[in-house]
## 1
Amino acid sequence: MKEYSKAAAALPLDDYEYHEAFPGFRKRIRDHSVTLIQLMDSCCGLLPKRRRVSILEEHTPPHAVPTLNETQRTVVMEAIDSYLENVDSLLDEVRGNKMSAHEQLAVHFGGELTIEDGSGNRGGGGGALRTSRGVMRPQLTFATPVDNSDRPFTPVYDDAEGRTHTGTPAVHPFAEQIQRITMPEGQMVHQADTPPVPLDTCPLKFVDTVEGLKETVARLLHETEIAVDLEHHDFYSYLGFTCLMQISTRTEDIIIDCLKLRSSMRLLSSVFLHPHILKVFHGAREDVRWLQKDFGLYLINFFDTGLALQALHMPYSLAFAVDHFCQVKLDKQYQTADWRVRPIPAVMVHYARQDTHYLLYIYDRLKALLLNSETRASVGNLLRHVYQESRQLSLELYEKPRLDPAESYKAALYRSLGGLSPLQETVAREVFNWRDAVARTVDDSPAAVLQLSGVLAIACNLPTTVKDVLKCCNPI
């Protein structure tokens, strides 16, 4: 998997549109695309019979490059995830499901972090900490109870002066300010790159008290740019919640315990709304929504390095950017870790800080490339284009998931419905809707209540006993 991912990241993307004008190039791309989609379809075909779904399009025009829609991509990802989970399960069994002593090292907020094994080497062995049923449910301690109803999301937010407001559903409270902002001159011209402080010597600050958060806000208000990332949990929660916020300046890394400080996170509004402090994220589409949902935080003056990479036709991933610009290989094994765990193991803290530690330097390098690019001369400066795209992203609004009892199951199950009888499809719809209702009630994700494969298995087999139903739901 690593070799394939590395090969994919190394594919050249420059001048793609230019080469696409040549028929021979288009044919080779189409042939390779067909081969890749056939391979992905074969992966889906290896699933148990009741879960198999074909992703091959029957009516792709002969000269068109085949692509996958969002549902098909989800099917492929679920298939690959299923195989990887099986491998993880078998490896855990072989290992006796024991974490290494290094992983068991816990870091309490407020202390310094040192990550070393017995030989003095830094970094972390061991596998990612998967979602655990044994973790106490943080949402039980939230000052404001979770609302999993169908009622529209109503934001509660602070303005830049710290005054609290209750917003209007589907209305962005800072849309006017975002639309009229003029970027500070320093953000629009090339400036000397500032290499990141070596990770080993960079100060790391943990924040888990209101006083500590206030002190952090006071320091951040003196910065001109900060890098931000979030760690979110959405398996044992219907709407999900943010567990950690990482912030990096040019001189330090900061990790904020969002579970302890959930009710106080709006203190950051004065920073996030400050028009002269640039907030740098990577791939922030979900982060923008999570900030609104969990903390009533909105972004004014924001730059998404993922959008910059796309504008430059470079691979989108943060791992690629850190490797390409900083010559550092990110270990992504904790990407699916359970960020509810407290105290947080040291290896997870180490992983989390890396997501922002290098980001401001990557921004420097990308800005220079965007300023020097002439590929978008007809539209204007490519840097301005990325700022405009980032601005549009910051205007997006969080919306609570809504269930249409008559239609939602079709979008989720898609092609899997093709071979079902009318009775089986009715069962699929009712089980799907039941799953959503239970998830809202117990505050779990629908997948934690019953996997989609279980919904299809019940619909296909039409079990008539409890024992047979449970067989369809394995694993529960």
## 2
Amino acid sequence: MVDYEHQTLKDVQAPAAGWVKALKLENGVIKAVVEWTDRAAEYLKNKEYRYISPVVNIRKADKKAVGLHSLALTNTPAIERQTAIVNKDDIFEGGNETMEFLKKLAEALGLGEDATEEQVMEALKTCVTENKSLKEGQQPPAPAENVVANKAVCSLLGLKDDARTEDVTAKIMELKSGKIDGVDVMAELKALKAQSADRDADTAVTLALKAGKITPAQKEWAKGYALADAKGFASFVEKAPQVVPMGSVELEDVKALKNDKIDEATMLACKQLGVSEEDVKKYGMKED
């Protein structure tokens, strides 16, 4: 639609000056076929209006023009140095006006003033495609670099390169939940840590009993202490005096050391508890 002074954008009566019947590209120039009303034709004939002003829809994301809203007859166009559409000799000025329009259209599309007709048309096609996709609730085609990145993400997630967005989202949510292939990884990890802590606590308590640092009656208390604070219990055992003669405590669940061989793990634990190798051989071993 062609109106007067952009009245369709205002809350006022907005009679039409003409109707755009078609847009076509000829010799590198975009032309509008307009059916003028009698009143508008008379204005143009009398040179009462000299300029045409386009209203373009601009996309906020990248400031590119995505559609033509309307045109308006005006004598105060917003575009600087605009060529008049009428002069003293003819109602249309010809090629200059169309070339200027092409330059302005190229600028609105984010192209340079020296953009060719083919570049302008390609940009227009892209705008039309993206606008149609947005109206249909679809995402516009992703740039090539994003496609490559998506392929890399799919590969890391163990998905196919052409995996759907829903599949990628589901896989990410599965990882966030701590589950892989239906297995609760976090729960498994917690269970393993608990088993390891329980085993370490049993070992520490057993060594403390063998070293005579605690009595059998203190075993449960010592186990709880070791589970709650392994370092604190080790410090306690190191500083605690010997309250039970070594070798006098029989432990049903502890295998006595045999022969004169002491494994490395046992010696490391005894060292932490302040028990010497000689004491282990003297009090912590049994003859066959």
## 3
Amino acid sequence: MPSFYNLLDFIFVFECKWVYIISICGMVLKLVIESSQFQRYLRLMSRNIT
């Protein structure tokens, strides 16, 4: 039975790692999208100023 519990531990850790990786990727993607929108906003502002 210890091998069964080790397998469960491995699966749990593996799934936690995947959730962690996916959440980091999502945060990075969100930052990139927000930064691109921010750059577009800055471009519009600079056009209005000049």
## 4
Amino acid sequence: MMDANTGIIIAHKNMHQRMEPASLTKLMTLYLTSQAIKQGQITLNDKVHISKSAWQTGGSRMFIQEGSDVSVQDLINGVIVASGNDACVALSQFVGGNEATFVDMMNQTAQQLNMVSTHYMDSTGLPNAQHYTTPYDIALLTRALITNFPQDYVWYKQKWITYNNIKQPNRNRLLWRDNSVDGLKTGHTEEAGYCLVASAERDGTRLISIVMGAPTDAARADDSEALLNWGFRFYHSHKLYDAKQALANPRVWLGANKTVPVGLSQPFYVTIPAGNYSQLQPQININTSLKAPIQAGQTVGMLTVKLNNAVINEAPIVALTDNPRGGLFARAWDHVMMVF
């Protein structure tokens, strides 16, 4: 189980064990689809012409028809709710040009996300000994999906899809029995067992649970629910600092301005055992000899937060504004002051 805000693992068992992911594979297909939308390469309203190879894909289906034109949004819904292999292949062909190229994109993205124990052979997750991942890698992917595409995350809590006059339910049982759960994806093959990636948010804390290889549909839901309830009971997430919040205004030598505001480029969270907030030890360390020119975003120090003298999170401190070199007189004066 991972805390979504910090990426910290708060509970695990066999998290680095290589396993077949079944339809959890589709989280990467959806990640690349969201990325293409964000980059302006495709839109939700684009129509995808359904190929014969997409239409005839086996396994769970959305029931799209060969030769029809289906919107990207409908295909996304079909992948998330119905776990449609046909919709998944159609998206992979549209985003990647063909599925082989798309699979290359999947593997490249896995490496970029540090999913070092993952290898994809297709966009759907059909059984293949060379198609594998680990629970930890799936957690990394899920956190990246939630963090990088927050505007798309609402898709993952849909309970039903109706397409081609066929109504299908989301197989994620937790959506039906826990209002705090709002995603993400189920998977099942004989080889992979029953799998479920779930996420929930309560009181500002968001957790991600990964269950793979469960013996039954009910077991994967029960295990996921137990993990989430345990995590929310014993761990809390706290936002200590906002992005762009000025933490200090250190002296800058040779600059147009004598100081520069510094802070963090992203919100800063810690996830800690309940009841330990008062024991946090934040430490702000800033370079004491900053010299212009300084550019916004330039690293000038480090924020470290400890609990019981153990580092629990850290982040670089950056300049929040530019500070160019000062005029000749100002620089000359600073040179004198630096000597003394």
